[in-house]
Amino acid sequence: MVDVSGQQVPNRRDLSRETRTRPALTRVSGVCYALSVNAPARALITMCFVITIAALSVGCGSNSKQGKVDRKNAEYHYNLAYGNYFDSTRPNVDGAMQEVLRSLMADPDYPEAHMLAGLIYLGRKQYPESIRHFKTALKLRPNFLKAKNNLGAAYLADGRWDSAIQVYEDLTKNIMYATPGNAHNNIGWAWYQKGDLDKARRYFLSAINLAPRLCVAYNNLGIVLFKQGQPERALKNFERAAAKCPRYAEPHYHLARLQSGARNVSAAERSLNTCKSLAGDSRLGLRCEERLKALRSAVGDR
Fold first, then answer.
1. Does the 28-182 domain belong in CATH 3.60.20.10?
2. 183-200 burial string, b = 16+ CB within 10 Å, else e?
3. Pairwise CA distance, residues 196 & 214, whole Å
4. What are phi and psi of 50, to 5 degrees?
5. Rounded to an integer, what distance in angstroms lies between the CA atom of residue 61 and that of residue 160?
6. Is 72 within 8 Å of 134 (Cβ atoms)?
7. How far apart are CA 33 and CA 25, in angstroms?
8. Where along the chain do its domains lie?
9. What pTM was estimated for this model as a whole?
10. What is the pLDDT of residues 102-141, one digit of tens each?
């Protein structure tokens, strides 16, 4: 796999994109917000919460019913956590973490609070804690599909490929799961990481069939085809990914690699400039900048 992390302009309310805290997913599709790879990624995560409006009269202090469940107090702190985490102008992840933990102190059996805690830990790359909270949410509400989706994303981020495959395979069998294309993409990415390119390709093709606008699946398919010695087909899929998602940076990186290999220096330079502009100061942006400098240096030495 190419060690890059694609960058897009994220939108917390866009279920096809990743969390604000940017877990390492641009090849992963669908983290669930309700809350949702900037996507890990090559897999998609979906975040999906139903925000509950707590009564304004509920205090924000410690649980007055010590030793007992206080759902109203839990809802109050959950709503504060949700607001901090999803504030579109000034997100406060630390504040969100404090409030969601207060929510769970008031009611340890609050599935939505475990879901949000799992997402925050996922964004912080604290994968064991993230997995624990998603599992707890599922134990409390077995049909909490969005929590199961995010559990799969956490397994992908933690490199637990077999566990991720099992979670997403289960989701694809559930008729109530709304984004099977994301699941097929994520299973494909896990198989790619396990080294089975044929299985990875089949799942990426299936993802595209189920979700024709899922640009990350075209990008991932291009990576597999390139590894399988099919540069022309890989190029077409990178072009499709870039065309379907104009603010998706990673396909431009791969396009530049193919274009420079074909000695199309001007096209490679355009692709790298686009990649750098879209990816900004991310790791991918720095890689594109370094490759652009190397390309220009090689041209100058001729």
1. no
2. bbbbbbbbbbbeeebebb
3. 22
4. -105, 110
5. 39
6. no
7. 14
8. 28-182, 249-302
9. 0.80
10. 999 999 999 999 999 999 999 999 999 999 999 999 999 9
